[in-house]
């Protein structure tokens, strides 16, 4: 099974990289861009894992290692399998 | 007092720390390999600066899972003295031995320069030879030093006297400009509640010999060596 995990800064945490990207987009004339938040994507291959097991395992991996829950949040989805 | 400097792949201030404790201060000092499970009976663990594991994932995030860090955690839990400098501070945050987390510097630049910091708490095992309000000139070199914590944690840290150093201007004022990396409340160094684990972004071990430009880091290192009265 392949899952995709998206980690980004919490809404309450300032994201200067996202702001810089937003400013660059404004400079290029994309004035409709309101806000940009930057994050990280992890694609993880799991073997011998069913949906129920993934629902237990992925939050554990994401909360313990992939994201620092003091400043970040995560979401995830099953891509295939 | 015996010091142990932990070496991770990517540490690059391990030799600086070793030199400071061993040569500049004349203390028995040894390197500790991150893959070992042996603290070699040291009295103090030093987590040095650098880029452990290339800063992959997040600064300090992978080093936290090194075999030796289990021993370091137990050592800290028993009251052993631990200092984390720069990347070492980041590791201590990832280990939850200190509160909060590091964000990228506010101006998104790697900062390599001298800064001035102010001693905020002189009743610690790392600062008792100094006095509250004393200003130290110490170098920094980091990308992720913008300390952040949620409001309730920040309040707890402030109320508990856990803030040991703040970035300030040369006369000791806290200004936006002197808070070079954007840390909340200009926090440059923190201690745990028990008072045996310190983390700081500035490098006191690089400011122990006048030939290198400053000896202001000595107050921290000598405090660690001498008993607190």
Which descriptors apply to this entry?
heterodimer, A: 81 residues, alpha+beta, Mth169, Chain: A, three-stranded antiparallel β-sheet, 2 helices, 35% helix, B: 229 residues, alpha/beta, Rossmann fold, nine-stranded mixed β-sheet, two-stranded antiparallel ribbon, 11 strands, 25% strand
In a nutshell, what does this entry contain?
Chain A is built from two helices and three strands; from the N terminus they run βαβαβ.
Walkthrough of the structure:
Chain A is of the alpha+beta class and 81 residues long. Chain A has a single domain, classed as Mth169, Chain: A. Chain A has 2 helices and 3 strands, in the order E-H-E-H-E. Chain A has helices spanning 16-27, 51-66; strands at residues 2-9, 39-45, 72-80. With 229 residues, chain B is an alpha/beta fold. Chain B has one domain: Class I glutamine amidotransferase (GATase) domain (Rossmann fold, 3-Layer(aba) Sandwich), CATH 3.40.50. Chain B has helices at 14-24, 67-77, 87-94, 151-159, 218-225, and strands at residues 3-7, 29-33, 44-47, 81-85, 101-103, 111-119, 135-142, 146-148, 163-168, 187-191, 197-200. In chain B, strands 2-1-3-4-11-10-9-6-7 form a 9-stranded mixed β-sheet, sandwiched between helices. Chain B has a two-stranded antiparallel ribbon with strand order 5-8. The longest helix of chain B has 11 residues, at 14-24. The model of chain B has no long low-confidence stretch (mean pLDDT 97). Chains A and B meet through helix 1 of A and loops of B.
Structural class of chain B: alpha/beta
Written as H for each helix and E for each strand, in order along the chain, the element string of chain A is EHEHE
| Strand residue content of chain B | 15-25%
**Would you identify the CATH architecture of chain B?**
3-Layer(aba) Sandwich
Radius of gyration over C-alpha positions of chain B, nearest whole angstrom: 16 Å
Question: What is the distance, rounded to the nearest whole angstrom, between the alpha carbons of the first and last residues of chain A?
Answer: 4 Å
What is the helix fraction of residues of chain A, given as a range? Answer: 25-40%
Name the CATH superfamily classification of chain A.
Phosphoribosylformylglycinamidine synthase subunit PurS
How helical, in percent, are the residues of chain B?
A: 10-25%
Instruction: Give the biggest sheet of chain B.
Output: 9 strands, mixed
Q: Mean pLDDT across all residues of chain A, rounded?
A: 96
Structural class of chain A: alpha+beta
Shape descriptor of chain A: elongated
Q: Which topology of chain A does CATH recognise?
A: Mth169, Chain: A
The multimeric state of the shown protein is heterodimer
Number of domains of chain A: 1
Q: Could you give me the name of the CATH homologous superfamily of chain B? A: Class I glutamine amidotransferase (GATase) domain
């Amino acid at each position: 099974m392949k899952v995709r995990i998206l980690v980004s800064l919490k809404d309450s945490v300032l994201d200067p990289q996202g702001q810089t990207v937003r400013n660059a987009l404004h400079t290029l004339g994309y004035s409709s861009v309101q806000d940009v938040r930057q994050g990280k994507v992890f694609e993880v291959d799991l073997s011998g894992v069913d949906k129920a097991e993934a629902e237990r395992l992925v939050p554990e991996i994401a909360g313990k290692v992939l994201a620092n829950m003091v400043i970040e949040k995560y979401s995830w989805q099953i891509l295939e399998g | 007092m015996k010091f142990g400097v932990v070496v991770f792949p990517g540490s690059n201030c391990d030799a600086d720390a070793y030199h400071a404790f061993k040569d500049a201060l004349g203390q028995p000092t040894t390197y500790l390999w991150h893959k070992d499970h042996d603290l070699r009976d040291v009295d103090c663990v030093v987590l040095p600066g650098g880029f452990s594991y290339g800063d992959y994932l997040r600064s300090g995030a992978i080093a936290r899972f090194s075999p030796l860090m289990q021993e370091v955690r137990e050592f800290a839990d028993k009251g052993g003295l631990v200092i984390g400098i720069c990347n070492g501070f980041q590791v201590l945050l990832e280990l939850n031995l200190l509160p909060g987390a590091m964000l990228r510097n506010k101006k998104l630049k790697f900062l390599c320069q001298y800064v001035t910091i102010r001693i905020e708490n002189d009743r610690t095992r790392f600062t008792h030879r100094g006095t509250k309000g004393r200003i130290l000139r110490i170098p920094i070199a980091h990308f992720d030093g913008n300390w952040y914590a949620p409001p309730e944690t920040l309040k707890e840290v402030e109320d508990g006297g856990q803030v040991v150093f703040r970035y300030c201007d040369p006369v000791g004022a806290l200004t936006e400009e002197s808070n070079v990396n954007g840390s909340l409340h200009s926090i440059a160094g923190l201690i745990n509640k028990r008072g045996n684990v310190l983390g700081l972004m500035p490098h006191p071990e690089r400011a122990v010999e006048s030939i290198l430009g400053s000896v202001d880091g000595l107050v921290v290192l000598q405090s660690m060596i001498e008993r607190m009265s």
